[in-house]
Specification:
By secondary structure, the protein is α+β, with helices and mostly antiparallel strands. 25% of the residues lie in helices and 33% in strands. The protein has twelve helices and 39 strands. Strands 11, 15, 16, 17, 18, 19, 20, 21, 22, 23, 24 and 25 form a twelve-stranded mixed β-sheet that branches. Helix 3 runs parallel beside helix 5. 45% of the residues are buried.
Length: 682
């Protein structure tokens, strides 16, 4: 594949400084079908591809600062003899880095005689603004506008490897799914007055509402009520993410607003109907369990045929599982697998705010539960790219990619990712070192003071970076050890003897900020920034924190807390934490994916993924079974209490993976029978 003949193109005369929807078309004829046809394409900011009218792909992945990703679509089965059309709707929203809209594509067709034909983006393509989309709005579609797009030759913006979008590189992960998800029920029908008052809709306002649940030709019928708008609250059964799709027959001018949060002033999708049938699939993803569909300006009956979500997620295939005698634990684990799948959009969709916290979760959980090596590598590289592209002061989350790299090394047992990404580790830590205040010896923040947790994470990142570099044989990194030691000494000055805890940092006058948190003790324990005479106080802050300490919250904070509890052997508290997360949030947290295999199955990775200790914590359960992914194949553990004194542990591991039984306090009262066989699974 050679991009030399392809050009980045856009709509002539459009400076693309605001949100804009543009459609590109290219017609061509085929006298015979090719034996292979592959289309390569990319866009700034996003595209929806149709080949001969069939929705074929959405993309691309979010760009890096020095490169942009292109997607590869096999379109052999979509071409036909005679006239063919390539068509792509492109939305420029400023989500990628170039600051202007662009589209590039290259179709390579190989024929039976070995000949090759290429169709690439150039001025022979047609471009037009889509008049139904409101300029400057992400998704406001006015289907009452009858005018068709006015096409003109596309304008060349840049060569394929021009300076605007840097180099083109292949997408390192699979395309996102396009799978239909139906709504489960209509939970509520309300009428809303112009001043915002909402009431339960009178009986008969909506007829045959159950027809919305089934994908057939039957319709629910909605009758207007003068002076009121109407709102349906529909339940998808589970939280999901993707593109809303609907089909209905309506009078002209009816306005449909679709929101996943029900807010009156925030609508990700606003659609104005034409007379008759209206069919639409959103171009912007939404995420949620409940969708609120509000009908405004109703002048007649509406026949609502279908409402569904076209799911768009990373194609996660779980190869880990968990079952136990506690149904609540099972439900938490299954829910968290689902939440893991939904979180993967973080590094793919420009409409999702990037989070270095989620990056670490994706690396750790997507590997151990699903073996998603491509996703883990992409997430970590994206995190480094985003952090190093900035030139501001470092925050606590900026150091998390270093921990992710350590996670990936432990899970895969290979130095491949470390060697590829280690230069970014060095750049990040060298830049952070330049931001140390010589007077305090601590990392500076924006106010001129220092944050305790940022410095603790900096110290932990230095420790892990040195360990990884030393393992990989990297030379000239002893400065990391020295910097970590100096940082430890400086952090000790933040201890408060009255509160027996680290304060949250120094203010601009270099004085202690009299606020205290559990997380500081957690990080101090994990990264060994504790004099021996303060160890008991730090442990008490973690295990039974007093009321003045701020509780741990957030993804990375909770994960560090669980790791600290595991280091202390506090397995009861780990499972209690998971239960408490479930009780305060319908979706729970992602951390049962970490805790349950580690504690309830007792599978602890001893490093490099080839050696595991089996030591289940069995106190409150009668049985538990599950599977954990390794690069060599899945490891299975199944334990059960066969009597008051006997416990049987059956394990199955692939060749090359060793499992070793280890007693813990919960196992001492049992006669343990440990059985391990070699698995042929891969």
């Amino acid at each position: 594949m050679n991009w030399q003949s392809a050009r980045w193109i856009w709509l002539e005369g459009d400076d693309s400084k605001e949100c804009r929807h543009v459609v590109f078309q290219r017609d061509f004829r085929l006298d015979e079908l090719p034996v292979a046809a592959v289309l390569y394409l990319s866009a700034d900011s996003s595209y929806r591809l149709r080949i001969n009218g069939q929705w074929s792909a959405d993309g691309p992945a979010r760009f890096f600062s020095d490169s942009c990703f292109f997607d590869t679509v096999d379109c052999s089965h979509l071409l036909r003899c005679g006239l063919n059309r390539l068509e792509s709707d492109v939305l420029f929203s400023g989500a990628n880095t170039a600051g202007c809209g662009g589209f590039i594509a290259l179709l390579e067709m190989t024929f039976a005689d070995g000949s090759l034909d290429v169709i690439a983006t150039d001025p022979s393509w047609r471009a037009a603004a889509i008049p139904q989309y409101a300029a400057g709005e992400t998704e406001v579609f006015d289907n009452s506008i009858q005018s068709a797009p006015v096409f003109a030759p596309a304008q060349v913006v840049s060569d394929a490897d021009g300076s605007v979008w840097q180099k083109l590189v292949p997408r390192p992960t699979p395309m996102l799914t396009r799978r239909e998800a139906l709504i489960r029920r209509v939970k509520e029908v309300k009428i809303i007055s112009e001043d915002g008052r909402s009431l339960t809709a009178p009986a008969g306002t909506v007829e045959n509402i159950q027809h919305l649940v089934y994908p057939d030709d039957r319709c629910a019928v909605i009758h207007p009520i003068e002076g009121f708008n109407l709102q349906l609250c529909c339940d998808g059964g589970v939280e999901n993410t993707g593109f809303w799709n609907f089909v209905l027959c309506s009078p002209a001018g009816t306005v449909i607003e679709i929101s996943v949060d029900g807010s009156e002033d925030k609508h990700p999708l606003r659609y104005i109907c034409r007379e008759g049938w209206n069919r639409y699939t959103a171009t912007v993803r939404s995420r949620g369990r409940y969708v609120f569909v509000t009908f405004r300006n109703m002048t007649g009956d509406i026949r609502f045929q279908s409402l569904r979500l076209v799911e768009s997620t990373y194609p996660l295939i779980p190869c880990g599982e968990f079952r136990s005698s506690d149904r609540i634990f099972d439900e938490i684990y299954e829910e968290n697998l689902h939440q893991l799948k939904l979180s993967m959009l973080d590094v793919f969709s420009g409409k999702n705010g990037f989070s270095a916290e989620n990056c670490r979760n994706e690396v750790l959980f997507a590997l151990s539960c699903c073996g998603a090596e491509d996703l883990a590598g992409h997430s970590i590289a994206f995190a480094f790219d985003r952090i190093l592209a900035g030139d501001g002061l470092f925050s606590a989350s900026d150091f998390l990619p270093v921990f992710s790299l350590a996670d990936i090394f432990r899970e895969l047992g290979t130095l491949e990712f470390c060697q590829r990404l280690y230069p970014q580790v060095v750049r990040l830590l060298e830049r952070a070192k330049t931001q140390i205040n010589p007077a305090s010896g601590l990392l500076k923040n924006a106010s001129g003071g220092s944050d305790t947790n940022s410095n603790l994470l900096f110290k932990g990142a230095l420790d892990w970076a040195w360990t990884l570099g030393d393992t990989a044989g990297v030379q000239g990194i002893n400065w990391m050890k020295e910097t970590a030691q100096n940082l430890s000494c400086a952090i000790l000055s933040l201890w408060d003897d009255r509160h027996l805890s680290y304060c949250t940092g120094l203010d601009e006058k270099q004085e202690h900020i009299p606020v205290f948190s559990v997380l500081s003790s957690v990080l101090a324990l994990l990264f060994d920034v504790i004099p021996e005479n303060r160890r008991s106080s730090v442990c008490a802050n973690i295990i039974s924190p007093h009321s003045e300490l701020e509780k741990v919250s957030g993804c990375s904070g909770t994960l560090f807390l669980l790791e600290a509890l595991e280091k202390l052997g506090m397995h009861d508290l780990m499972t209690e934490r998971i239960r408490s997360e479930k009780s305060v949030s319908e979706s729970g947290s992602a951390f049962s994916l970490y805790t349950f295999p580690l504690v309830l199955l007792g599978l602890k990775n001893n490093g490099r993924s080839l050696s595991f200790t089996v030591s289940p914590f069995v106190r409150e359960l009668e049985y538990a079974s599950g599977t954990r992914w390794t690069p060599c194949g899945p490891v299975h553990v199944n334990w059960r209490k066969t009597s008051e004194q006997t416990l049987v542990i059956d394990c199955c591991a692939p060749a090359g993976v060793t499992l070793q039984y280890q007693e813990n306090v919960s196992l001492r009262e049992y006669n343990v029978e440990f059985n391990c066989i070699e698995s042929e699974e891969v």
